[in-house]
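Title: Comparing notes on inverse folding

I've been comparing how different people in this forum approach sequence design from structure. To keep things fair, I'm posting one structure and asking everyone to reply with a full sequence. Here's the target:
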């Protein structure tokens, strides 16, 4: 199949499924990984998609306020990101974890003079194009699927920085804390938490009561959770007992 036709099919897929990754392209069109990558690069260059953690989504051709809805990104993630962006202060030193909601936060921040550190090349690209930003990208083993660095080396790199704030993404959030399915990612998140004065967890409702193999941190190590829905009652009670601040965008919207 010619590339032009394949790109049309990829866009058709995105209209239905909202997100696609290299594995989908390889399977659906029987092409190599390099070809799948070139297809995504071509579509991004044409402004038709935006590559995010885990693959690619449709890009908006309309206003700056709606791209994530138009490309299949849930509205509730944008609301979480907007609240998170409001916590950025002039001259802050900030860690940006790899996460679609954290990436949205980086996009939605007002221009301020900050120093940023991230292990995500997508977030690094966003921040490095902003005036007044000093941006650092950690090294280590590169994960092609998530487009970030996650390894013991990366965790060591993270400890070289001390920041005011960490915007942390969530894989699974349970009564025992935050967990991840990937060992390297868990170690990097741990290092970020230890190196930040304030930990802000961005966790939508789909992350509640999920547990994975690798422990990232206890609930007590989180200062603020920004989410779209009130957590299950037992978890909400535990967060309150630990004096963890909870911001629920669903409630904020209703005010």
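Reply #1:
Here's my take.
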């Amino acid at each position: 199949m010619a590339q032009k036709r394949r790109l049309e099919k990829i866009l058709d897929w995105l209209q239905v499924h909202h997100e696609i990754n290299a594995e989908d392209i390889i399977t659906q069109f029987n092409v190599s990984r390099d070809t799948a990558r070139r297809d995504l690069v071509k579509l991004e260059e044409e402004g038709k998609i935006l590559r995010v953690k885990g693959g690619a989504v449709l890009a908006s051709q309309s206003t700056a306020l709606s791209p994530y809805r138009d490309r299949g990104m849930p509205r509730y993630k944008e609301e979480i990101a907007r609240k998170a962006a409001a916590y950025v202060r002039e001259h802050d030193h900030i860690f940006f974890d790899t996460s679609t909601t954290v990436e949205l936060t980086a996009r939605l921040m007002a221009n301020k003079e900050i120093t940023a550190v991230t292990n995500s090349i997508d977030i690094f690209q966003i921040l490095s194009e902003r005036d007044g930003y000093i941006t650092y990208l950690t090294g280590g083993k590169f994960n092609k699927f998530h487009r970030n660095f996650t390894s013991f080396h990366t965790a060591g790199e993270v400890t070289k920085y001390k920041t005011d704030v960490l915007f942390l993404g969530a894989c699974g959030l349970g009564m025992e804390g935050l967990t991840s399915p990937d060992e390297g990612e868990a170690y990097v998140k741990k290092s970020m938490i230890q190196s930040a004065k304030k930990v802000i967890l961005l966790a939508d409702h789909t992350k509640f009561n999920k547990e994975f193999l690798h422990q990232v941190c206890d609930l007590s190590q989180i200062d603020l959770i920004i989410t779209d829905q009130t957590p299950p009652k037992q978890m909400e009670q535990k967060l309150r007992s630990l004096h963890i601040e909870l911001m629920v965008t669903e409630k904020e919207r209703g005010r």
